[in-house]
Design goal:
The chain has 2 domains: about 220 residues, Rossmann fold (3-Layer(aba) Sandwich), CATH 3.40.50.300; about 240 residues, 3-Layer(aba) Sandwich (Rossmann fold), CATH 3.40.50. It contains 20 helices and 10 strands. α6 packs antiparallel against α16 and α11 runs parallel beside α20. The longest helix has 24 residues.
Length: about 500
Amino acid sequence: MFDNKENEYALFTTKEKKKLVKEKQKELGVLQRTIFEKNIPTVVILEGWSASGKGRILGKIISQLEPRHYQVHSSKVKSIDELRRPLFWRFFIKLPLYGKMVLFDRGWYNDVFEQLIDGASQEQWADKINRLEAQLVDDGTIVMKFFLHISKKEQAKRLKELDEDQDMSWRIVEKDWNNHKQYDQRKKLAEDFFSKTNTSYAPWHIVFNEDKYDGVLEVLDTMIKTFQDVLENGLPITTRSNLLVNHLNTPYLQDVSLRPYLTEEQYKQELKKEQDRLTKIQNLLYRNKIPVVLAFEGWDAAGKGGAIRRLSWALDPRGFDVIPVASPTKEELMHHYLWRFYKEIPKVGHIAIFDRTWYGRVMVEKLEDLTDKKRCEQAYNEINEFEDMLHSWGAVVLKFWIQIDKEEQYTRFMTRVNTPEKNYKITDEDWRNREKWDVYEEAVNTMIQRTSTHEAPWIIIEGNDKMYARIKVLRTIREKLEEEIKNRM
């Protein structure tokens, strides 16, 4: 993969190469505007050896681009906030709006590569990356990956020149020299890993960049050809199987008994006991840096808000956030649908409580024809991948469906209608959704069966009795967190 291939511009004069660069920059600028008009997002990942010329290549790429339609992100150094999130988080939240372009000066490969040097599994990380990139392409994103290659001898020469330049020496740190000493080992590792992540939908382009113009021309050529191919033939078809997950035997909604109830006295006793224990558990989560993601779904008027309130009363507000999820904003609609949820992933030791979730993709969006059927079908696997990523990172993921029957929902609707201070809770949409109870029930059953996994289980809460439902939510969370803390200490 890293063999020096014959360059088609090798026999051109410097003057001819400079002229070609300008022509191709203009051509790329024209194509960028067309891509923008077609609402196609683009992700460009520029990796390479230290001193391989990434900055210069980036400058040549953007020379004739419309600056309002692209962003460049340098990802070499992680912030403290980024260190406390999953590896892909800092890249996913910077994905471009539809039609725009993001260029990563070092992308997720740089982060993963450091883990591979420390002995992490190539196969596991290659699978995670291939799935991430497939998700982007399935969503309509062009993904281009470049690695700027120079020889070990050339790298030593450039590092020395930069080190001796008073104005440029700040760019070279001890790690660059240490990596140079490991050049042969890193090259072999990169060849192996790139072969595992070289897919038809997100191929690698190894660019030999020792000549001042050859590398630039190759990158510009590749970008131009990629844009032209997408405009003519569409995005490539991704090739990956569904993630292998350990599905749980979760009951269907119609098979759940809704008879359990608590007396008011039982409720008060259990509420205080569970909240007191959760208060202590939250401190242990923080000390052990365990992130928690709690997802709440359920029928309209099922009691999600009440359950979340009782949970929040037990917690230090500095260590959790409640994320209410409504219809996506204009900005959110211009991103991958998981983008707005990636943004809310908690820091290690913190808790994120989602009042409605990413499952809207396979419920309301699917049933109301708000999203293409193919994309809705793909979402089951994408959601399993998303939750597997959270679990692999170390998060505890629990998902609650609060179940009530149709008669109980009607009673609660009418209470809201007849109680002035609760009128705001009932909308025309609630009544419309109620008319589609049977099709929603079928969709929820499918959702639960296809996404209830050992890593991210669905827990069905019997919700006809609000007091029972609230206690079961608190008890389930408390028991699971106690188990996780015990296993990790």
